Amino acid sequence: MLIALALSLLATMAPADTARGTIRGAVQSDASGVPLALALVEVGEGTATLQATTDSAGAYVIRRVPAGLWTLRVHHIGHDELEMRVLVPPGGEVELDLSLKARPLPLAGITVESSSGGGVGDTARAGEGAMAMMDQRMLNEGPGAAAAAPPPGTGGGGGTEPGDPRDVLWVRGSAADLKLVLLDGAPVYTPFHMGGLIQTFEPEALGAARLYLGGAPARYDGGLAYVMEMDTRAGRPERMRATGAADLVSGRVLLEGPLPGRAATYLANFRAVNGALLRSTGGQPFPYEYSEALTRFDLPGRTGGASLTLFANEEGVRVDTVAVGDDFARWGNLAASLRWHGVVAPGLHLETTAAFSDFRARLPYSTDTRSVVMLGDTRRLRLAADFTRAFPAATFRYGVSYDRTWVGNEVWTRLPTRARLFDERNAGDVGGLYGDVAWQPAPSVAVRGGMRADLFGTGQVASLSPRLSATWLLGPKAALTLAGGRYHQYVRVARQDGGATGDPPTTLPDSLHLATRLAVARATHVSLALDQELPRALRLGLEGYFKRYERVAGPQDESYVSGVDVWVRRGGGAITGWVGYSLTWAWAPDTGDTWGTERFDGRQVITSGVAGPLGRAGKFEVRLAYGSGLPFAAIPNSVADGSTGGVASPGDLNSTGPAEQPSLTQSPREPYLRLDAEVSRTWSPGFRGRRLELTPYVRLLNALDRRDGLFYRYQSSDGTLRSLGALPFLPIAGITFRT
Fold first, then answer.
1. Can you give the pLDDT at residue 417?
2. Confidence band (pLDDT; 50, 70, 90) for 542?
3. Cα separation of 338 and 206, whole Å?
4. Which of 101, 172, 622, 669 is the most buried (most CB within 10 A)?
5. What value does the CA radius of gyration of the chain take, rounded to a whole number of Å?
6. Would you state the torsion angle of the CA atoms of residues 528, 531, 535, 536, taken in this order, to the nearest 10 degrees?
7. How many whole angstroms separate alpha carbon 201 and alpha carbon 117?
């Protein structure tokens, strides 16, 4: 009844006469598909005209456009002017990706030297397509809490499955971390919110997100599974701005503007989830915690500019595996990056990066006789210098990098006294250099090829990683890309001698196969992708890939993955949205099975969203996430009887097992399903000569009233699984503001 009343109220309230909307998108050259920087985009008539200039990625955004039908014009030297009519809904957003027809200008012979301007960095935020791509990839990978104790048999530690499934905490997500995620050049492990209560990453702070499932350029060191690079945007220099929201479970605020003297800009974003106002859901304590802080400073110079990014986050989920004290499993990151870019010689551009990150995970756990906490941490220092030189027929990129990684695992008793049971730490460094050439041999063909050479300090391993990508323009609105490459990176594997190192107060046999040793793993990728613009502002993305992994869990380990990703996105018109589908197969020889069978895993993930106007000034949005066959990591009992358990082959997994133990067929296999919905309405009142946007909203989290969760544990009484940290149907109300 309350929800129906809120919907009716939002739909029938009179709109403000001054309701405004937003137009955003990207501009590219029709002939080559290359983004056009410094294109002028203007909307309006006569003196009532709003303007924006595209950034280096061709992106633009025009805010506070009065609702109605307007003329939009795009100008860029060497291209025909484009003019079109655009209908801007009250309080809505129109996304237009535009292509300009090339028209070369006849000029007398001149000498041109490129130069990077000294202005602030790009200020346009990432589009909904990039955000949806991130959501789907994170759902497919799962949380990073498993890094606290990567389990046997799941790619994180090798060895055997635990003997008793009641001694296991199941975590949705792979234990082995094979990805490379860069946030403004700093390698981070889980810079995302995983619980689904707020957006994966704050969209107002993100400038761009690029995902490589295969064929990443040679400058990326690592990324056996995939490479994702995220760049925050610079703060806008005109004036101080504030954007934020608050509701029953979360709050956020983003501040941006010029620093005193207007020589530099800042952007600061803060988000938090704790559910303090709800206290409980379904009679249980609120299961999630999340906090995040992101700050970026940009200082322009005469021939370049510098930026400093600081990031910290922590996420926690309540797990009732401890009798007393703090019962939250927690994981989080600290990261900092300092970057400078500019022209160091005629035609030569340089970008330098110095970054440090620290990932930590904590898991409390108890048995009938002892309470312990498992701790895991990974720290990385990354230094890089990347050069770019443009020639008439090609662009050459080259650079050097150095990366040092520290890893560690600890196990401490909690009761009756605090004592360290296990402690092991290792470190490894890697130095590399690369060269990469982008060449367009024909108007419809673009080729990029490169080679990366790395020397890993652990084991004195030298590696060569070739990369190649070729793109064919199938027409003015379609491109086909074939890419391949090889990748190397450090992974955490278990010790082979089964013993702990160091001199802790109490020695614990390494029956957990804790991944504390660094080894060099390798992957080979081949991918084929299609990107096409369709009628009615639709865009189609299709990518298939095949990957081979070697030495991920041990010297003889080998596994394979293949799959396909499909995207359809509508960025223009009154109704916008996307649908994404991923289908993945993974298989590997089962070294623990004397019959030589293969382990096989298949999974599929669907994410979708749709948004549109509701009445004259309202808006609705619906998001769906579904995952079937998602990977799970098993964190075994840390104080078991000291045995390593029996070997669990695929045959064992499908058998009944001993009478006193539940069958492992009870392992978490049910699909993940979430449906969230939101309705809102925007007012734009005046405040001290400025326009203030207020948007109250009603949001339904998990609108299917289906309890889902990331963590599972067996019930000792009946051997069934129970989800920990699950959220049922949850209606919340809040308000968003923008100055």
1. 73
2. very high
3. 17
4. 172
5. 27
6. 120
7. 29
Cα(616)–Cα(67) distance, integer angstroms = 10
Answer whether residue 155 shows pLDDT above 50.
Answer: no
Beta carbons within 8 Å of 222's beta carbon, 6+ residues apart: 180, 187, 487, 488, 489, 490
Q: Are 267 and 278 in contact (CB under 8 A)?
A: no
How many Cα atoms within 13 Å fall on the side-chain side of residue 28? 14
CB 319 within 8 A of CB 724: yes
Pick from 723, 564, 515, 561: nearest CA to 632: 723
Model confidence band, residue 132 (pLDDT cutoffs 50, 70, 90): low
Superfamily covering domain 128-738: TonB-dependent receptor, beta-barrel domain (2.40.170.20)
Peptide bond into 416 cis (omega under 30): yes
| 388 has a pLDDT exceeding 90 | yes
pLDDT, tens digit, 9 for 90 and up, residues 465-479: 999 999 998 887 889
C-alpha atoms less than 13 angstroms from C-alpha of 116 in its C-beta half-sphere: 25
Average pLDDT over residues 493-517: 49
β-strand pairing of 632-636 with 618-628: unpaired
Is the distance from CB of 667 to CB of 632 less than 8 angstroms? yes
Judge contact between 395 and 438, C-beta under 8 A.
yes
CA distances from 134 to 7, 227, 437 (A): 30, 11, 28
Q: Across residues 360-384, what is the average pLDDT?
A: 81
- With b for 16 or more beta-carbon neighbours within 10 A and e for fewer, the 692-708 pattern comes to ebebbbbbbbbbeebeb
Residue boundaries of the structural domains of the chain? 2-100, 128-738
Q: Are 220 and 212 in contact (CB under 8 A)?
A: yes
- Report the amino acid identity of residue 370: R
Q: Are 11 and 696 in contact (CB under 8 A)?
A: no
Q: What is the pLDDT of residues 201-224, one digit of tens each?
A: 888 898 888 888 777 899 998 888
Q: What are phi and psi of 420, to 5 degrees?
A: -85, 125
Task: Give the separation between CA 672 and CA 140, rounded to whole angstroms.
Answer: 10
- Output 231 or 729, whichever has higher pLDDT: 231
Q: How many beta carbons lie within 10 A of that of residue 393, not counting itself? A: 8
Q: How far apart are CA 505 and CA 502, in angstroms?
A: 10
Which tens digits make up the pLDDT trace of 618-649?
Answer: 999 999 888 877 555 444 433 333 322 222 22
Q: What secondary structure letter does DSSP report for 274?
A: -
The pLDDT of residue 339: 96
Per-residue b or e along 526-545, where b marks 16 or more CB atoms closer than 10 Å to that residue's CB: bbbbebeeeeebebebebbb
Task: Point out the least confidently predicted range of 9-13, 423-427, 621-625.
Answer: 9-13
Looking at residue 156, its pLDDT comes to: 30
Could you say which DSSP state residue 176 is in? S
Q: Provide the CB-side half-sphere exposure for 350 (13 A, CA).
A: 11
Query: What's the pLDDT at 355?
Result: 97
Q: How many CA atoms lie within 13 A of 199 on its CB side?
A: 17
Window from 275-289, 445-459, 494-508, 524-538 with minimum mean pLDDT: 494-508
Pairing of strands 420-442, 168-172: unpaired
Burial class (CB in 10 A: 0-12, 13-18, 19+), 159: buried
Lowest mean pLDDT among 95-99, 279-283, 646-650, 710-714: 646-650
Residue pair 315/193 in contact (Cβ under 8 Å)? The answer is: yes
> pTM (2 decimals)?
0.75
> Degrees (nearest 5) of the Cα angle 237, 241, 246?
150
Closest-CA residue to 267 (of 317, 308, 315): 308
Q: Which CATH architecture has domain 2-100?
A: Sandwich (2.60)
Tokens 């109250």 belong to residue: 696
Token output for 683: 């007012």
